[in-house]
């Protein structure tokens, strides 16, 4: 199995599927459709049922139930095909380090760059395993092509191991997760699942059922522009200065991603555009709790009111937009999807542990929409950068764990 899983993974990471937040199309980039088409083709060749690409570009397929029991919940497994805009995903040259020996890893395309167990201690868990890295100038794309390769191998395994009883299994590959549009056009009725899992996590055993809640904010400051020669006489109001003033007033020392961890949320300016006439500052607001998130919005609105009061000739507007909510609000009401995942991990010889994500997942939105969707490990490390790596054996553990999970949903129904 290992070579099938590995060769799949190597095939997928070579396709440039970087998503692009400035794009107006869906999927945001054509490379994603290349991989999605490939997956559709491979699912058909594997013998999966109902293989289809939906109009927006999601690829779905089924593994028919092989149980006589009625009322077994339909379980879906999802992974995203795009890679992060933060780092190039073009011409990825994956390198397989067989039986990793624990030493510092060097990169042929970037002398000087090193992957060092001293700074990436999780590497020590991979000693003796086969690890895959990129070559130094790109990311690897293990986020989330590990998840894609795991699910494709799971399909193959469930179709082959017919003694393993399970209900209807759905698989779904999605675009544009990294730019927050992953489930925008996903038709949940078409997916037809009662419970789902995204395969997009870290080391073996990791289960995530709690994420941030997130809002986005945009502050628009309109100034008054004149020719500089008569700026004093005509009363120029420079919106660029006002944007700077707003940034300087943020409670950065206790409320920024770089100054917080654990369960503390933050206000994070991600984009500043400043001209005399108009400035725009975009923010991410994050907190695990809804009241904490609302507080972040109040702080920002308060700062905007203060800015407006300090310069009445300007016009300051603050717009908040909902992004996603902590999936724990819904999962806590019915922990079965999480409990069965834990049980499946134990059955697969792993030690389950909870991981609270300081971020959102496609599952955050799916869970809010009524489809409980915790996130499970698939072996990702150092995502979104050139030091990304994955161990083949960790991906294999994810395949085994998901196969156990499919079986457990049948047995416990
Ligand atoms: Zn991901």
Describe this structure in words.
With 413 residues, the chain is of the alpha+beta class. The chain has two domains: 2-211 and 326-411, Zn peptidases (Aminopeptidase), CATH 3.40.630; 213-324, Alpha-Beta Plaits. It contains twelve helices and 17 strands. It has helices at 2-13, 30-46, 142-160, 188-191, 231-234, 239-249, 252-255, 290-310, 328-331, 336-347, 362-368, 392-411, and strands spanning 49-53, 59-63, 75-80, 95-97, 105-106, 114-115, 131-133, 169-174, 195-201, 206-211, 213-222, 266-274, 278-287, 315-324, 353-357, 375-377, 389-391. It has an eight-stranded mixed sheet with strand order 1-2-8-3-9-16-10-15, with helices on both faces. Helix 1 (2-13) runs antiparallel to helix 3 (142-160), helix 3 packs across helix 12 and helix 10 crosses helix 12. The chain is globular, with a radius of gyration of 24 Å. The model has no long low-confidence stretch (mean pLDDT 96). The structure holds zinc ion. Residues 80, 143-144, 177, 200 line the site of zinc ion (ZN).
């Amino acid at each position: 199995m290992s070579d099938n899983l590995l060769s799949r993974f190597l095939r997928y990471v070579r396709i440039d599927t970087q998503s692009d937040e400035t794009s107006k199309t869906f999927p945001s980039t054509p490379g994603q459709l290349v991989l999605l088409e490939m997956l559709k083709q491979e699912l058909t060749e594997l013998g999966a049922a109902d293989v289809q690409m939906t109009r927006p570009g999601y690829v779905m397929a089924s593994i028919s139930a092989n149980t006589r029991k009625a009322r077994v919940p339909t379980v879906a497994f999802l992974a995203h095909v795009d890679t992060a805009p933060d780092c190039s995903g073009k011409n990825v040259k994956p390198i397989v380090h067989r039986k990793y020996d624990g030493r510092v890893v060097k990169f042929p395309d970037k002398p000087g760059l090193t992957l060092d167990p001293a700074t990436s201690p999780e590497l020590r868990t991979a000693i003796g395993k086969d690890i895959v890295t990129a070559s130094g100038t790109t990311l690897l794309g293990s986020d989330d092509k590990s998840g894609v390769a795991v699910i494709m191998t799971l399909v193959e395994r469930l179709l082959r191991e017919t003694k393993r009883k399970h209900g209807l299994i759905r698989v779904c590959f999605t675009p544009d997760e990294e730019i927050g549009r992953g489930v925008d056009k996903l038709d949940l009725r078409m997916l037809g699942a009662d419970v789902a899992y995204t395969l997009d996590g870290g080391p073996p055993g990791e289960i995530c059922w709690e994420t941030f809640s997130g809002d986005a904010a945009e502050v628009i400051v309109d100034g008054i522009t004149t020719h500089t020669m008569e700026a004093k006489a005509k009363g120029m109001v420079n919106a660029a200065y006002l944007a700077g003033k707003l940034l300087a007033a943020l409670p950065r020392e206790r409320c920024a991603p770089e100054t917080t961890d654990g369960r503390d949320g933050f206000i994070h300016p991600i984009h500043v555009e400043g001209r005399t006439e108009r400035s725009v500052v975009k923010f991410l607001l994050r907190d695990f709790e809804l009241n904490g998130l609302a507080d972040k919005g109040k702080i920002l609105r308060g700062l905007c009111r203060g800015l407006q009061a300090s310069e009445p000739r300007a016009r300051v507007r603050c717009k908040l937009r909902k992004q996603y909510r902590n999936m724990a609000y819904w999962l806590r009401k019915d922990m079965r999807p999480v409990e069965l995942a834990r049980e499946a991990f134990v059955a697969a010889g792993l030690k389950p542990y909870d991981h609270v994500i300081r971020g959102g997942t496609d599952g955050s939105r799916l869970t809010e929409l009524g489809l409980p969707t915790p996130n499970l490990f698939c072996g990702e490390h150092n995502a979104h950068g050139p030091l990304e790596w994955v161990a083949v054996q960790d991906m294999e553990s994810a395949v085994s764990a998901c196969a156990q999970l499919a079986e457990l949903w049948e047995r416990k129904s």
